[in-house]
Amino acid sequence: MFHPHRMWAAWPAWMAGRGGHRGRDPFDMDGRGRGGFGDGGRGFGRAGRVFGPGDLRLVLLALIAERPSSGYELIKELEQRFGGVYAPSPGSVYPTLTLLEEQGHIRAAGMEGAKRSFEITGEGRAFLQENRPMVDAVLNRMNITAQSMSGRAMPGSVHQAMHTLRAALAFHSRGWDEAETRRVLDVLEKAARDISGG
Asked: What are the residue boundaries of the Transcription regulator PadR N-terminal domain, all occurrences included (predicted)?
């Protein structure tokens, strides 16, 4: 028998934000769902990995070289650059900052409230300079990916409509006999076909 809640298991991964870390469920109203990227992020899905191994470390170091930042500020900066569609998870950012600090590439620059800020060291700047071609390549890939992903951002009105649809299914009060199950299935499948253009 068809169960409407199971249709979400087949929802496109880049919309559902599934994976090993944080992801944005299309129905998560504050954008703080669970799922994510191989690099640990929310919003795009496992099929569209944003950062390769070691890339996030270079990106964070390059951003800190621009101005001292806390982990929270770095997450928000990347989220802004990706148009709100993607942000690295704290579970990937903070361990990376710890690694950079242990490597001597960044150091604590003070506290902003409860947030610890970091600044780049001379050794960190030398590392960026020595690896400039690699750093530039990573940043260029990130910018290209951000431009592509920004075009996939869901309009707020559509986001609200999807939330309403989920509520309608969750609080369905007619019962799920065979006829009603088929009726709802037909409605959902027709909507999916119409949205995807046939």
From this structure: 60-130
